[in-house]
Each structure stands twice: as structure tokens, then as C-alpha cells.
Amino acid sequence: MLATLLLAALLAGCGADSAGQPESCPTELEQDPDDEGGVYAPSWSPDGTRIAFTTGTDLLVLTLADCTIERVRPEQDMRVDWPDWSPDGTSFAFVGSSESLAEGVFVMRSDGSGVRALAEGSVLFPAWSPDGSTIAFIDERVDEATPKEDRNVWLVNADGTGLRRVTTGPWHGSVDWSPDGEWLVADSGSAVVKVRPDGSERTIVIPGDHPSPDWSPDGETLVVQGPQFAPASGGELKPVEFVEGGAFEPAWSPDGEWIVFTDGAGAQDLWIARPDGGDLRQLTRTDETSGG
After folding, report:
1. Do 284 and 7 form a contact (C-beta atoms < 8 A)?
2. DSSP for 196-237?
3. Cβ contacts of residue 254 below 8 Å, gap of 6+?
4. Which parts of the chain sit beneath pLDDT 70?
5. CA dist list (Å): 136 to 19, 131, 197, 198
6. DSSP per-residue codes, 119-164
7. CA-based nearest residue to 284, from 46, 18, 62, 71
8. What single DSSP character describes residue 280?
């Protein structure tokens, strides 16, 4: 059944005054019938003016100033998932695949040209290092002897060389870098942990299962699903209510003034809010309707 994804970028979230009733500026997009609906995996542009996200097959970029939404198409037909903007804003790292290309980590220029494969496998959550030299990602493998899922943090250089494993199982959910590039942070199911890029000094930062940790630009705070906030050095979590159902995939804006996230109600939508929950603004509105 063909679904239509209606993305309504709200003026209140795109540079307009947040007071009063927001007006919508809808952009209609056809969603792949294989998609579950909604949007996810938001990634800020380095200058904080745009947000990239995905429907599971397509890469979309929303410009906050004028509410426009652009689809970025790779030069070859392929699925684009889990995008992450490079620190210089010229490229995306992403999870991709096509009929002729096995799933893996890819990079391409921000206009969709220059697609290159970096690492093959069942991968998730590619994340550029702050200096743009390295991409961290999660690789899902199955130990045939157990059999047991082996989901760990790996690194690869931006030119495709130097593939190496950072952590040893059994499970890591996602990965992010500290602003100085000296640490990686990941949720391991039983705790949020930080580790050096060479795999040393593994340290529990937040006990318990707290998905999607993201490091603030000043290096002082971690945000996790909820959202909840904790000192990056370790400490008590502070929950903040953004929307009913919770905030998923939270990510700090480059200036630390905003959190972008997806909601948990049905087909996900994109929102931003201040870290204290103020100035809540909905950026997309998903409307699934059947078609021929």
C-alpha cells in the first residue's frame, strides 16, 4: 500500500516567533511503500541552520529559516539511512545499500555526488569524528559458535583505510564522539560507557539502559533518550519532559542551544526544544494515507 508522507515544517520552528498559534508550510513527499512511516536519525548541519534526517530510504534536509525540505539523491540509486553530517558540512556519512552494492558505511558529498563505500556489513549509526578524519559506527555480527549477537563500536578512516574494532561485545546500541575527539560514548544495554578510540579506559558514565547518548558541544553534558541529562563526567540523571511518549534520538545543536529529537507517537515526527524543554517546536507532521 502506497503511503504519502506529509511533512509540515512549522513556522514556529523555522525562525518565526514562538508565541501564538504556529502556521504550517507543508511539503508532500511520497514515502517508499517498504518504509514503516515517519522520520528518524536527525543530524544537524555544522552551522546549525539545517537538519538532515531519513525516512529509512531517502535522505531529506530541512532548512530552518524558510521551512523548505530538500531530498538529497545519491548519484546512484540506493537506500540512504542513518545520515551524519561531516564537520565541514561538505559530506554525509550514511548506511546504504542497493541492488548492486552490499550494505555498509558510505560517504557522499552533500549534493549526493561522489558516493564511496568505506566498510561493508550490517552497520548502524555512523558518526564523524570532530576533525573529520574518522567515522565511528556500530557493526552487528553474529558469533556462529554461540550463536550470539556481537554488536560493537568500530572505526574507519574517512578515506576507507584503517578499519578497526574498538569495543568487545556483547552489545552496544549507538555511538557518539566527545567534542575534542578524545572519547567515544555508547550505550551498552547495562550502562552508558565512554572509551578511548583505541579501546582503552572503558568507563561507566551512567548505570542502566539509556539509549542514544549524545555529547553537548561544550563537553559538559550527555543527553539520552527521554530526554534525560547527566554530567559527562558521570552523575545523576535529570529527566525533562518534552512531549508525551518521550523524546528519541536526541541530538544537541552545534551551539548547544537546542535539542532535535523524534517523538514516540505512531509514525515519528521531528521536533526541537531548548534543553530545559522550553520553546518546543514541531518541524514535521507525518500523515499516512493510502493510495493507488
Report:
1. yes
2. -TTS---EEEEES-----EE-TTSSEEEETBTEEEETT----
3. 44, 45, 46, 47, 48, 217
4. 1-37, 142-149, 265-267, 287-292
5. 40, 12, 9, 12
6. EESEEEEEEE-TTSSEEEEEEEEEETTTTEEEEEEEEEETTS---E
7. 62
8. -
Q: How far apart are CA 23 and CA 209, in angstroms?
A: 38
Q: Which tens digits make up the pLDDT trace of 42-61?
A: 999 999 999 999 988 899 99
Residue written as cell 563500536?
A: 153
Within 8 A by CB and 6+ apart from 12, the residues are 18, 22, 281, 282
Q: What is the pLDDT of residues 159-190, one digit of tens each?
A: 999 999 999 877 888 999 999 999 999 999 89
Cell, residue 182: 578524545
Cell 540523571 belongs to residue = 237
Contact 126, 86 (CB under 8 A): no
- d(CA 192, CA 42) in angstroms, rounded, equals 21
Q: How far apart are CA 236 and CA 215, in angstroms?
A: 16
Count Cβ neighbours within 10 Å for each residue of 201-238 and write b for 16 or more, e otherwise. eeeebbeeebebbbbbbeeebbbbbbbbbbebeeeebe
Closest CA to 41 of 25, 23, 68, 59: 59
Q: State pLDDT tens for residues 191-220.
A: 999 999 999 999 999 999 999 999 999 999
- The three cell numbers locating residue 157: 578512516
Local structure of residue 268 (DSSP, 8 states):
B
At position 94, the amino acid (one-letter code) is F
